[in-house]
Specification:
The chain has two domains: 51 residues, 2,3-Dihydroxybiphenyl 1,2-Dioxygenase, domain 1 (Roll); 65 residues, 2,3-Dihydroxybiphenyl 1,2-Dioxygenase, domain 1 (Roll), CATH 3.10.180. The longest helix has 14 residues. The protein is of the alpha/beta class. The protein starts with 11 loop residues before the first strand and ends with a strand. The radius of gyration is 16 Å and the shape is globular. 20% of the residues lie in helices and 35% in strands.
């Protein structure tokens, strides 16, 4: 008799940021756009949830931000949010990224057939250069 393997899903992700005044408003707006709500906050952090996955955005202590983040260094490369349509990707690009004059990466939004024939995404970076992707597949 085979035993069932346990299943897991992402419960929360913590992102440490270098500047609370710059990053917390960005994350409040970005995650609110996708239906996340604030569950806890202070001048140094914000916790947001959609009822399934939580994001905790926390300002690092002074002296801990040297070196900075780089997605090609060991550790996190990027975070992707999957949405239900290509139009949702385009609308987000227009209503959120362009409105804030945020640079998009790789000529996106566009198809990325090297990943999947119907892989449509936009890539961008947060204020600390953490790369994000909004994708429909």
């Amino acid at each position: 008799m085979k035993s069932k393997k346990p299943k897991a899903s992402v419960y929360h992700i913590q992102i440490n940021v270098s500047n609370a005044r710059r990053s917390l408003p960005f994350y409040r707006a970005f995650l609110s756009y996708w239906g996340y709500r604030v569950v806890d906050q202070s001048p140094k952090h914000v916790g947001m949830s959609n009822g399934t996955t939580d994001f905790w955005i926390i300002a690092v202590e002074k002296g801990r931000s040297q070196g900075g983040f780089h997605r090609k260094a060991p550790g996190l490369n990027h975070i992707a949010l999957r949405v239900n349509s290509k139009e949702a990707v385009r609308t987000f690009t227009r209503e959120f990224l362009r409105k804030r004059k945020m640079k998009v990466l790789y000529g996106s939004p566009r198809l990325f057939p090297e990943y999947h024939p119907d892989y449509y995404a936009v890539y961008f970076e947060d204020p600390d250069r953490v790369k994000w992707e909004v994708v429909h597949k």
